[in-house]
Predict the 3D structure of the following.
Amino acid sequence: MRPPPLLLLVLWVPRLLGTLAEGEGCNRTARAGLEGQEAPIDRGTVLNLSVSDHGRSDSLLLSWDEPEGGAEGYSLALSSLGSGTLLQNGSAGPNITSFWFHGLTPGMHYEVEVTATLACMETTRQTVTAQTSPSPVRNLSLSSGGSSAMLHASWAHAHGQRDCYDLALYHSDSQTLVRNVSILPNASTFLFDGLLAGSEYALKVSTLSGSSQASTSIHQWTAPSIPTELRLSPGSSTSLIASWAGAGGAAWLHLTLHNLLTQTVTTTLSARRGLTSYTFQHLHPGTQYWLGLSATAGPYTVGGPNATAWTYPLSPGNVTLSAAEEQNSLQARWSTPVGERDFYLVTLQEGEDGAPTRNISVGGDNGHVTFHGLSPGKQYSVQVTAVAGPYRASARSTAAWTQPLAPSGVSLSSQGSPYSLLASWEEAVGEGYMLALSPMEYPMKNRSLLRDVTNFTYEGLRPGTLYTFEVSTVAGPYTSSPQRITNWTYPLPLEHLTLSNQGRSTSLQASWRAAFTGSTGYTGTLWETKSGEQVRNMTMGNNWMNVTFEDLVPGRQYTLEVAAMAGPYRSPVRSATDWTYPLAPAGVTLTNTRRPLGLSAFWDKAAGDVDQFHLQLYSKSHPAQRNISVGPNTHNFTFLGLSPGIQYFLKVTVLAGPYRSSSHFATEWTYPLSLANVSVQPGRRPQELHVSWVESGGGRDHLVQLSVAESLSIIRNVSVPRGVTQLDLEGLVPGSRYRVEIISQAGPHRTSSQTAIGYTGRNAAPLHPSPSLVPSLALTW
């Protein structure tokens, strides 16, 4: 380094020599001669000496100003300051204003005198002192010696004189003054410590002499420090992130990334100080890389740590799981992504929760695997994981199912209901069930159920209908073959069942109205109600609405039970009861018991059953009637306390349940009572008899018989209606004795009264009856 030009201090030493006085006189004479023209110019005697070495430590350049009026020449003398020894001299012609002194000693103080020869032999002198610049040190060196914190400076001494050495150490990057020291002029080495590793430093060594100096500079690096904690980790499938610590001690870091699979250098990188991480891009997925790091500072290079890492592998694409050709097998397939991987880990997962059930490892170039012996009807998914070193990248398939098995233990139960069927089955493995129920002649109705349900009740069905039930296990897109079963809903009971004899004694007709919904037919049983004995069984198709039971017992109660049938099921029984019409009793008679107040009834029991006999005895002449009920085993009855001489009518009615069958009327008269108080009195004329009596009740009419008392022969019969109580008999023989007997008649029965004797009256004169006279009867009442 060359020092800047040095302006030396000029010391003015005026000398009032005689020559100056002489010059002044010459100048005055000159000025006097010119006064007549113009005023003279004062040319001055100051030379304005200046000294400069212009960066040269063995030379001095002396410069001055030309005096006014010019100078005829200059003489120069160089001597050592202090000793006054003349060392060099020289001269310069007119118009010269500078002069070089060469071969001087660096760092020395000199005195220079300049004498200018003026006109009129005048001279002017001026002296100046100056110092040559010191020379810089030689062979300056700066070395770290392999140290990262120290630099050793050494040099050879400079020529000439010096006061001391000034050492300034700068940090090159920051231009910061790190150390500034002054040392003795005889020192030639210095050790800088506490420096930064791997840094470039600039050392300026200045040789100081007086106010002048000469400098020499040198650059050097401290040895770099080795970075620590090198880490290499994946940033993605195509990038690796390198990071390290302690990198401040290196000016440059050199990173070399090797692909260990291909054994090639992938990337080289030089990074400046301060970088602590770097991302390597455009790498191969799933590949192992080796990273080497070295630190450089100037001429120094230090090998550092290394690290290995894998890029993340790419997950396989288009992972599918589908049914294989073999039963209960699934095949997983995937497409191989770019990049590398160590192998594939294929995990078969079961159910919605994805519980691992099988693991298979296959090579990294494989693209499928088949799982055998899986459970039927189960949901599976597969996860295919690409493994590269410690890293994994997975992809999962959608769910797939194995073919399900059909449920077992399928049943279809009506449970006695006409409107519902309970379907049940044993649980089968799968996602759910597909149910179908339909009448035989109608299309299926489908229904889906979730798993864990093993029964379902169909409501709102048609009674008495045969249904087909199918159940299949559903597993994903697969449906097992159906399990099929049929059953009937219970039929509804028939409506309006009636049982009627329709007035017949040996048959009953049953009729009903079919239920609104279906049945396959009817079954019925006819029972004797009282004995509980089964009489008839019937089975008919569903188009029958009535049936007649023949050859039954008259007057017997029967119960008919009928149920609608549908398959093996019978509806609740409907029952009806009725009696056959009883037969009327035969041989009904009413007989007089010869007691005036009694009649006996007789009848014969007809075939069949009788609950009781009802006897109705009445008379048209009396409003009161007798009603008597007797047991079924009674075949006669005597009515007592009847009215005498009355015609009675008897009707015997057979009772069987609510039905009656009556016989024809039988009739009979009670015996009439004999008349009381019969008297015979002469009439108003001698030919008359007046007969009177008192009725005692009963009878239809009276027969009055008149006979001659002595002959007992009846000479006259007179019929008198009931209610007449006197009679006049005319045309009799006066004064004759007659006998009168009154017979009460009631139907075929007669009852005589007591005989009464009476006389006709006598005439005052004898009368001779004319033979032409006809007897006459006069009746009065």
In short: The chain is about 0% helix and 50% strand. The radius of gyration is 85 Å. Confidence is low (pLDDT under 50) at residues 1-25, 27-44, 767-781. The first strand starts at residue 7 and ends at 8.
